[in-house]
Design brief:
transmembrane helix, mainly alpha, nine-stranded mixed sheet, SMODS and SLOG-associating 2TM effector domain-containing protein, transmembrane, SLATT_1, membrane, 13 strands
C-alpha cells in the first residue's frame, strides 16, 4: 500500500515537472580537460516517462526553456557512425571485431575523408549557420557532429559568451552512452565532462549505477570493455537534451527518436530545416527515422564520403562496388558505410530521372517551357506554364483514362531518343527504383553476413588451435593468445563460463574493474587456466584430453548458438526480408526532397545546401479538386467585377443626369425671369411645360435608381471581388487560415492538411458569395443565370455552350432599366460580361495558348518572390498610376470652384446678379460630383496604400536570402499586404456607402427642392446665398483640451504598466511557491524512499506507518495552503489591477466626452 502511494506521488511529481519545463533545465558549468576556461551547458534530463508526456504542442516551451529562440534556420546532423568518432567511443572493439575498422582501403583514403569533411564543415556549413543564425542539432558518436564541433569551437571563443554567438548548438543524447565514463562521478578525481554533468544533475543521479549496468549488460554483454565510452562535447558551449533511455529495465531509444522528430517538426513549421547524414548506420537502423523525416516534407541531404567516378546506371555502379569490396575484404574489413552507398545510389537515380525528363521534353516539343528563374523547384514546373483549363484537362485525363503504371507503360514513345540506357523503352522509373532498393538491402545484408562469417571463422580457427594443444602449458598459452578470436563469437553472457568454472576448478574467470581510459583489447573478463593446479589434479594425458574436450564442447556450444542468431538477424536473406525497412529505403530513394552529393565535390555540396535552405512548406502542385475550386473562385471574381463595372456606370450616369437636370431647371427658370422666353417658344406656358418635362425626367431617373439601386449593387459586387482576390492569394501562398501544418507531419498528414485547406477555402468563398448575392436585391437580376461551374468529369465543355454575345457596354444600361420597368431580368436581353480573364476556359479570348514565360497562371502555389511580382508590384503600380490622374482632377475641380466664386463676385459687382444663380448652381453641381466620386478620400487612401506597400517591399528586398525562407517573415509579408489592401478596400466601402446614403437623401428631396426653387424669387435666393455663416471656435477649444488628453493618456499608461507589473509579480510568486511545493513533495518522497531502502521490513510497523502518514499529511497541507494563498493573492491583485484600469479609463472617457460636447457645439 505504501509503495503504491509512493509511486502515485512520484507520478504526480513527474507530471508537475513536465508542466514546469523550466524546472527540468539546469545551467551547468564544466571544465573540459586541457581547457583554459569553463564551458556552459544547459542540460535537460528526461526519463522515458517524462518524454512520453511532453506532447508536440509543448515543443515551443522546450525551445524556450533551453534558450533556443531567435534562430532563423535548423541544421540537423543525424548519427553518422563507424568512423573515427564512433571508434573513439568503442576503443576496445577492434581487438574483438577487427572487421569494424574504418572502411577505407588505406590510411591515405581515410585521412582524405577526414580532411574533406572538415573542409565541408568549415567552408560551407559553418558560414551558412553563422549567416543564417541557425540552430545546429547534433548526435553522439557522429562524424558530422564531431567535425562541426571542432571547427565551431574557435568561432564560439571569438564571440565570448554563447549568447553572443550567432548560432546555437543542441545535442540529443542517451544517458546509457555516457554511463561508463561518468560511472565514477561521485569521485572528485573523475574529470570527464560527462562525470561533471552527472555530478551536478540530480535527475541523472536518481537512477542507480547498478540499474545502468544491468541495462548495458543486456544490450552489449557482460564485458564492460565493449560498452560505449562516449564523452560529451568538450570544446563548445551547447544545450543538451539527455534521455534516460530505460523502460522496464531495458534499453529503449524510441522515445528519443520520437521526441527529436517532433521537436524538429515543430521548428520546421516556421523555419527551414536541413538534415544531413553520411558514413553508416548500424543495420540501416536509422533509415526509418530518415523516412519519417522526409515524409513530413522536410529536406534531407545524403553525403557520400567516398571519392568515386561518375557512373551512369546501377549496373555500372554494382560492378564498380564488387571490385572495391574485393579490395576491402582482402584487408578483413566490411563496408559499414551503407549511408554513403545509399547516397551514391540516390545520385544515380537522380541522374537517370533528369536524363529521362530531358528526353521526354524533347520528344513532346516542350523545350520552350524552361523553368522560370524566379520560380522555386518545389512547385510543379508544368503548372507554371499552363492555364487553369489546361491543368484541369490534363489532370482529369490522368484520373479518367489510365492509372500511374499504365501511363508509364503505354505512354508516348520518344521519337527523338536514340538507343541507350536512357531510351524510353529501356528505362522504367519504377523498376529502376525497386532494383535500387533491393541493391541497397542486398549490399548491407551481404556485408553483415560477411562480417558474421569472419567472426565465426576466427572463432573456429581459435578452437582448432586449442584442439591441437598437447599439454596444460600450451593449452593455457594458446587460450590467452586466441582469447579475442574466441570472444568474436562466444560469451556474450558469461553464465555458462561461470558454471564451467564452478565444476572445473582449474579454470578461473577473472574480471577487471572499470578504469577510465584503460586499454582492454582482450576485454575485462577473461578465462585463465591455473596450470599448476591443473597439472596436479589431472596429470595424465587422458585426463587432459577429457578436460580439454569439455572446454572445447563449451566453446562449440557458444559458437553454435551465435551461428543461429546470425542466421536469424545478420544474414542477407533475413535482412532483405524486413518489409518495414524495404519501405523506408524505398521512401528515401523515391522522395524528391532527398538530395545526394559527395563531400569531395564541395561545389556540389554548397549548391545543394543553399538550394535546400530555400525550400518552404508549399505543395508541389494543386490537385484536381483544388483547381476546380480555384476556377470557381475566379469565375465569381470575373462575374462580380463585370457587373460591378456596369452598375458603377449606371450609378454615375443616373447621378450625372440628375445634376444636369437640376442645372437645366435653374438656368431655364432664371433665364425666363430676366430674359423672357430663352427658348423662343411661342405660346403661354411653354416654360412650365419644359420644367414639367424636366421634373418628370428627374422623377423617372430617381424612381429607376431607387428600383435598380445600382450604387449599392456596385459597392457589394466590388467588395466581393476584392475579398475573393485576397482569399485566393492567401490560399495560393498557404497563409492564415490556409496554413497547411502538414509541413511538420508525415505524408498522409500533409495530404489531409491540404484537404483541410481546400475545405476552408471553399467555405470562405461560399460565405463571400452568399454575402454578395443576398445583398441589395441581386437575386432579382440575371446574375444567377450565369454558370460558374460545369460538369468537367463527363464531357469537355470549356463553356462553349454559354459563349457570350458581343454587344456594347452601354446597351446594358438600357436593358437593365427596361428589365426593371417590366419586372423581368436582363438575362434574355444581354449576356455581356468580361468572363474568363484568368484562364478558366479555353474559349476565353487570349487563353487558347499556353502562358508566356514569367506570366502569372492564377493558380500555381505562389512562392514569396512570385507573390511580390504578381501581387504587390501590380498593386503598387495601380495605386501609383491613379494618384497623378486623381490629383489632376481634384485640382481641376478646386480651380473650377474657386473660379466660380470669383466670377460670382464679379457679376454681383457689375450688377448682373441673375447670372450668379446659374454659376452657383454649376459650382454646387461640381462640388456634389466631387463628393460623389470621393476624389480627396481616394487620394488619401491610394497614397497611404502605395506608401505602405512600397515600404513593405523595401523591407522584404532588404532581407538576406535565408531570412526570406523563414515562415514568420513570409507570413508577415502576405498578411501585412492583404491587411493593407483590405484596409483600403474597407475605407472605400465606407466612403462609398456614405456617398450612397447622401445620394439617396438628395434624390428623395429632389422634387421638393425643385418646386421650392420655382416659387422662390431671385432676391430671396441671393439673400440666402450671401447670408454670412460663422463657425464656432471649436479648434481653439480642442487645442486647449489636448494637454489634458495627453496627461490622461500618460496616467492611463502608467496605471496599466503598474497593473502589468503586479501581474508579473503574481506569476513569479506562483512559480516560486510551486517550486516550494515541488521541493516539499520531493523531500517527502526521498524520506519515504530512504525508509523503504534502509528498513524495508520495518515499513509495516506502526511507527513507520505513522511517520509515513505524517509525511503525506505534510505534503497535502502544504499543497492546500499554497492553493489558498495563491487564490487570495491573485484575487487581491486582480481587484487592484481592475480598479486602476477603471480609474484611468474613466478619467480618459470624461475628457473625451468634453471633446465631443465641444464638437457638437
Amino acid at each position: 500500500m505504501e509503495k503504491k502511494k509512493i509511486e502515485a506521488l512520484h507520478q504526480e511529481i513527474e507530471t508537475m515537472k513536465v508542466q514546469l519545463l523550466e524546472q527540468l533545465v539546469q545551467d551547468i558549468k564544466y571544465m573540459a580537460p586541457q581547457a583554459d576556461a569553463e564551458r556552459n551547458c544547459k542540460l535537460m534530463y528526461l526519463t522515458n516517462g517524462q518524454a512520453a508526456k511532453i506532447e508536440s504542442s509543448q515543443m515551443a516551451k522546450v525551445a524556450s526553456a533551453l534558450d533556443l529562440t531567435g534562430v532563423k534556420m535548423v541544421v540537423r546532423f543525424c548519427p553518422s557512425q563507424f568512423g573515427k568518432a564512433w571508434l573513439r567511443s568503442f576503443p576496445n572493439c577492434l581487438g574483438r571485431y577487427p572487421t569494424k575498422k574504418v572502411p577505407e582501403i588505406d590510411k591515405k583514403a581515410m585521412f582524405d575523408v577526414d580532411h574533406q569533411l572538415l573542409m565541408v564543415m568549415r567552408e560551407i556549413v559553418l558560414p551558412l549557420v553563422v549567416k543564417c543564425h541557425a540552430l545546429v542539432i547534433g548526435s553522439p558518436m557522429c562524424e558530422l557532429t564531431a567535425a562541426f564541433a571542432e571547427v565551431a569551437a574557435p568561432v564560439q571563443r571569438q564571440y565570448g559568451d554563447a549568447k553572443n554567438c550567432p548560432f546555437r548548438f543542441l545535442m540529443f543524447g542517451n544517458a546509457t552512452e555516457y554511463h561508463l565514463v561518468s560511472k565514477a562521478f561521485a569521485e572528485p578525481k573523475c574529470k570527464t565532462v560527462a562525470a561533471q554533468l552527472r555530478r551536478k544533475c540530480s535527475a541523472w543521479n536518481a537512477l542507480s549505477v547498478s540499474a545502468f549496468d544491468n541495462v548495458l549488460k543486456m544490450r552489449f554483454g557482460d564485458d564492460w570493455a565493449y560498452w560505449p565510452e562516449g564523452d560529451v562535447i568538450k570544446t563548445c558551449d551547447y544545450s543538451m537534451i539527455l534521455f534516460e533511455g530505460i523502460s522496464n529495465g531495458q534499453l529503449n531509444t524510441s522515445g528519443l527518436d520520437r521526441f527529436q522528430n517532433d521537436f524538429v517538426s515543430h521548428l520546421s513549421i516556421n523555419l527551414p530545416v536541413i538534415a544531413m547524414m553520411t558514413a553508416g548506420s548500424d543495420r540501416l537502423g536509422y533509415v526509418p527515422a530518415i523516412s519519417d523525416h522526409v515524409n513530413r516534407g522536410l529536406p534531407f541531404v545524403l553525403l557520400d564520403s567516398r571519392k568515386r567516378p561518375e557512373m551512369p546506371n546501377l549496373a555500372e555502379f554494382e560492378k564498380y562496388m564488387e571490385e572495391y569490396l574485393e579490395k576491402l575484404h582482402k584487408n578483413g574489413i566490411r563496408d559499414a558505410y551503407n549511408i554513403s552507398y545509399l547516397s551514391c545510389v540516390k545520385h544515380i537515380l537522380d541522374i537517370q530521372k533528369d536524363a529521362q525528363t530531358h528526353i521526354a521534353k524533347a520528344s513532346s516539343a516542350e523545350d520552350k517551357l524552361d523553368s522560370d528563374p524566379a520560380s522555386e523547384d518545389k512547385v510543379d514546373k508544368l503548372e507554371k506554364h499552363e492555364w487553369i483549363w489546361e491543368v484541369i484537362q490534363r489532370k482529369k485525363l490522368e484520373v479518367r483514362d489510365y492509372n500511374k503504371y499504365d501511363r508509364k507503360k503505354d505512354g508516348p514513345k520518344a521519337t527523338c531518343a536514340e538507343d541507350g540506357p536512357f531510351a524510353p523503352d529501356a528505362y522504367d522509373a519504377e523498376d529502376e527504383l525497386v532494383k535500387a532498393v533491393n541493391l541497397v538491402l542486398r549490399h548491407t545484408g551481404r556485408e553483415m553476413q560477411y562480417e558474421s562469417t569472419q567472426w565465426e571463422d576466427r572463432c573456429r580457427l581459435a578452437i582448432g588451435v586449442l584442439t591441437r594443444t598437447e599439454g596444460w602449458a600450451q593449452f593455457a598459452q594458446e587460450l590467452d593468445s586466441n582469447w579475442t578470436r574466441i570472444r568474436s563469437s562466444c560469451f556474450f553472457k558469461f553464465d555458462a563460463a561461470r558454471d564451467f568454472c564452478n565444476t572445473h576448478k582449474w579454470m578461473d574467470l577473472t574480471e577487471e574493474p572499470y578504469r577510465n581510459g584503460a586499454k582492454m583489447e582482450n576485454g575485462s573478463i577473461q578465462l585463465k587456466i591455473d596450470v599448476a593446479l591443473a597439472e596436479s589434479l589431472w596429470p595424465e594425458k587422458e585426463d587432459f584430453e577429457k578436460e580439454k574436450e569439455a572446454f572445447i564442447k563449451l566453446l562449440q556450444g557458444q559458437l553454435k548458438f551465435t551461428e543461429g542468431l546470425n542466421r536469424l538477424s545478420r544474414s542477407e536473406e533475413a535482412f532483405t526480408s524486413q518489409n518495414n525497412l524495404w519501405l523506408a529505403v524505398h521512401d528515401v530513394l523515391n522522395r524528391d526532397n532527398v538530395y545526394a552529393c559527395n563531400i569531395h565535390n564541395r561545389n556540389q555540396v554548397d549548391k545543394v545546401l543553399h538550394k535546400v535552405a530555400r525550400i518552404d512548406r508549399l505543395p508541389k502542385g494543386n490537385t484536381l479538386e483544388t483547381m476546380i475550386l480555384l476556377r470557381w473562385a475566379w469565375n465569381l471574381v470575373d462575374i462580380f467585377d463585370e457587373h460591378a463595372f456596369r452598375y458603377k456606370m449606371v450609378s454615375k450616369a443616373a447621378y450625372l443626369v440628375l445634376l444636369l437636370i437640376g442645372i437645366a431647371v435653374v438656368v431655364i427658370t432664371v433665364a425666363a425671369q430676366f430674359a423672357g422666353d430663352p427658348l423662343q417658344v411661342q405660346g403661354k406656358g411653354t416654360q412650365g411645360s419644359i420644367l414639367l418635362g424636366l421634373t418628370l425626367a428627374a422623377t423617372l431617373v430617381t424612381g429607376m435608381s431607387q428600383i435598380v439601386d445600382p450604387q449599392s449593387k456596385w459597392i457589394k459586387l466590388r467588395g466581393g471581388v476584392l475579398t475573393l482576390e485576397s482569399e485566393i492569394w492567401k490560399f495560393r501562398t498557404r497563409i492564415g487560415s490556409y496554413d497547411a501544418e502538414g509541413s511538420s507531419r508525415n505524408l498522409l498528414g500533409r495530404l489531409q492538411a491540404e484537404r483541410n485547406c481546400e475545405a476552408a477555402f471553399k467555405d470562405r468563398v461560399l460565405i463571400v458569395q452568399e454575402g454578395v448575392l443576398n445583398a441589395s436585391g441581386l437575386k432579382a437580376t440575371s446574375l444567377f443565370s450565369i454558370p460558374t461551374a460545369i460538369d468537367d468529369m463527363s464531357e469537355d465543355h470549356n463553356l462553349q455552350a454559354v459563349e457570350p454575345q458581343k454587344v456594347g457596354r452601354m446597351r446594358f444600361v438600357w436593358n437593365e432599366l427596361v428589365s426593371c420597368a417590366c419586372c423581368t431580368t436582363s438575362s434574355h436581353l444581354s449576356r455581356v460580361y468580361r468572363f474568363g480573364n484568368h484562364g478558366q476556359f479555353k474559349t476565353c479570348p487570349g487563353f487558347s495558348r499556353s502562358p508566356l514565360q514569367g506570366k502569372d497562371t492564377h493558380h500555381a502555389p505562389a512562392q514569396p518572390n512570385e507573390y511580390v511580382r504578381f501581387r504587390i508590384s501590380p498593386a503598387i503600380a495601380f495605386y501609383q498610376s491613379r494618384i497623378p490622374r486623381y490629383s489632376f482632377r481634384r485640382k481641376v475641380f478646386q480651380g473650377s470652384l474657386l473660379l466660380s466664386t470669383i466670377i460670382s463676385a464679379l457679376l454681383a459687382a457689375i450688377s448682373m446678379p441673375f447670372f450668379c444663380a446659374m454659376i452657383s448652381c454649376v459650382s454646387a453641381a461640381l462640388a456634389a460630383w466631387q463628393d460623389f466620386v470621393g476624389l480627396p478620400k481616394k487620394l488619401d487612401r491610394y497614397s497611404t496604400a502605395a506608401s505602405t506597400l512600397t515600404n513593405l517591399l523595401m523591407w522584404w528586398q532588404s532581407l538576406p536570402e535565408y531570412e526570406r525562407s523563414v515562415m514568420e517573415n513570409v507570413q508577415f509579408l502576405v498578411e501585412e499586404t492583404e491587411k493593407t489592401l483590405a484596409g483600403e478596400r474597407n475605407a472605400w466601402l465606407s466612403d462609398a456607402e456614405t456617398s450612397a446614403k447622401k445620394v439617396k437623401a438628395n434624390i428623395s428631396q429632389k422634387n421638393l427642392g425643385i418646386r421650392k426653387w420655382k416659387r422662390a424669387t431671385l432676391r430671396e435666393r441671393l439673400r440666402l446665398k450671401t447670408t454670412p455663416f460663422t463657425m464656432p471656435t471649436l479648434s481653439l477649444r480642442l487645442k486647449n483640451l489636448l494637454p489634458q488628453i495627453e496627461a490622461a493618456a500618460q496616467d492611463k499608461s502608467q496605471l496599466q504598466a503598474k497593473a502589468e507589473k503586479i501581474e508579473e509579480d503574481a506569476e513569479d510568486s506562483v512559480k516560486d511557491q510551486r517550486s516550494e511545493l515541488l521541493s516539499t513533495y520531493e523531500s517527502s518522497l526521498d524520506k519515504m524512499r530512504d525508509m523503504a531502502e534502509e528498513s524495508p521490513d520495518e515499513l509495516s510497523s506502526p511507527s513507520a506507518k505513522e511517520q509515513f502518514a505524517n509525511l503525506v499529511k505534510e505534503a497535502t497541507t502544504a499543497s492546500k495552503g499554497l492553493q489558498k494563498v495563491n487564490k487570495q493573492k491573485l484575487k487581491t491583485m486582480k481587484k487592484t489591477y481592475y480598479e486602476m484600469r477603471k480609474g484611468g479609463k474613466s478619467k480618459a472617457v470624461g475628457l473625451w466626452k468634453e471633446v465631443k460636447m465641444n464638437a457638437h457645439e
